[in-house]
């Protein structure tokens, strides 16, 4: 009996000790001093003078913009604008009063159009007017006409394009853009001459690669096409300015450079931003008994791009409730530096964050794939310990 009581007392003391504050999570990056991917990750300061410094701290590590430095936004380089053909595009080709060459043609895998009795006509990356001129020359060189005939080359339908996207995007990989599903096809448009699409634009490719990271340099986005390198300035899309969204071709490669710093002004929805953030959640045991009753998805929850940590904490039912038992909760954010791939864990005392006037300075933006876990208050922990002690005491009494 004495041994059983000793074990019970030791168990109770051990459980009570477990109610003490947990140590601050350790990290390889210099998180506590503000040297991590976001300065908002750093530890809460106890200084009386409270100011919003995170945006300035983030900007201090920025490399210079690789594009124009005079504040002006450049248009697309010559050779990129307008309607250009790519492999797989459907073309309506007509030669006046000639049934031999009239018809629908698909730009072949080698990037050419192949009319009968004529050499293949290069089409990849060319405008319809350039193909018309090449077709007239081929007809004259082949002695089909003594004088230049009137010809027409019109795009009837755009094919999808396979392009590579790398650099400061969340999911760098080769993407397929511009493919239209059977449900989205319009029979009237299919029967009409001409074609139009926004699904093969540069912005669509960047979004398909997960969207830009907050460290992206939008002033110098590179487009590599047919051995040539073009530099595009896309900063205007986040400032309400009109930006030329060039159409991409199969075989293009897009590289988004990095400024090696976190840019707060890129954490807002835009044409190049991620569609949102998928969070992995783990909520409290008290007062909710599970995620389902708290209206939290079984695994993840979708949140808008630009959501902050404390907004997600509220969304996971970690804030509020009975003040006497629910105060002094804490929340943990598990994230990963998208540049280095190194994980970072930070913990915030929820009540302390709510009370601080400079709470925004320590409230990080959420990134795709982040995880959030909430811990109950010390009073709830003690109640749990009491329940365990009572259960152990009951079991001891039964063994007498």
UniProtKB/TrEMBL annotation:
Biased composition regions of type Gly residues, renumbered to the chain: 65-82
Record keywords: Signal
Residues covered by the Polysaccharide export protein N-terminal domain: 84-155
Pfam family, one: Poly_export
Source taxon at top rank: Bacteria
GO MF, any single term: polysaccharide transmembrane transporter activity
Region listing for Disordered, in residue ranges: 65-85
PANTHER family hit by this protein: POLYSACCHARIDE EXPORT PROTEIN GFCE-RELATED
UniProt protein name: Polysaccharide export protein N-terminal domain-containing protein
Species whose genome carries this gene: Salipiger pallidus
């Amino acid at each position: 009996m004495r041994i059983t009581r000793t074990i019970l007392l030791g168990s109770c003391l051990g459980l009570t000790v477990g109610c003490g504050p947990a140590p601050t999570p350790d990290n390889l990056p210099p998180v506590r001093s503000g040297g991590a991917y976001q300065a908002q990750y750093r530890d809460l300061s106890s200084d009386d003078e409270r100011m919003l410094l995170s945006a300035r701290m983030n900007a201090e590590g920025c490399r210079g913009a690789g594009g124009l430095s005079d504040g002006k936004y450049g248009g697309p380089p010559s050779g990129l604008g307008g309607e250009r053909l790519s492999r797989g595009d459907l073309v309506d080709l007509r030669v006046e009063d000639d049934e031999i060459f009239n018809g629908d043609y698909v730009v072949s895998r080698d990037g050419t159009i192949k009319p009968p009795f004529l050499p293949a006509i290069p089409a990849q990356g060319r405008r319809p007017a350039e193909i018309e001129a090449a077709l007239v020359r081929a007809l004259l060189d082949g002695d089909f006409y003594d004088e230049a005939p009137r010809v027409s080359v019109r795009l009837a339908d755009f094919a999808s394009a396979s392009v590579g996207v790398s650099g400061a995007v969340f999911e760098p990989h080769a993407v397929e853009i511009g493919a239209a599903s059977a449900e989205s096809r319009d029979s009237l448009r299919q029967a009409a001459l001409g074609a139009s699409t926004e699904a093969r634009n540069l912005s669509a490719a960047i979004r398909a690669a997960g969207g830009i990271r907050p460290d992206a340099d939008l002033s110098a986005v590179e487009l590599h096409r047919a051995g040539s390198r073009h530099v595009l300035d896309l900063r205007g899309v986040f400032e309400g300015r009109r930006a030329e969204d060039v159409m991409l071709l199969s075989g293009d490669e897009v590289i988004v450079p990095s400024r090696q710093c976190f840019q707060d002004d890129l954490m807002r929805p835009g044409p190049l931003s991620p569609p949102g953030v998928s969070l992995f959640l783990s909520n409290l045991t008290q007062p909710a008994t599970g995620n389902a009753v708290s209206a939290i998805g079984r695994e993840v929850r979708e949140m808008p791009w630009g959501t902050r940590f404390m907004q997600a904490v509220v969304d996971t039912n970690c804030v509020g409730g009975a003040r006497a038992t629910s105060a002094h909760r804490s929340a943990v954010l598990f994230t990963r530096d998208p540049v280095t791939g190194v994980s970072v864990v930070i913990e915030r005392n929820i009540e302390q964050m709510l009370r601080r006037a400079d709470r925004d300075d320590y409230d990080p933006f959420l990134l795709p794939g982040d995880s959030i876990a909430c811990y109950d208050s010390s009073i709830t922990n003690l109640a749990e310990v009491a329940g365990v002690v009572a259960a152990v005491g009951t079991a001891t009494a039964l063994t007498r």
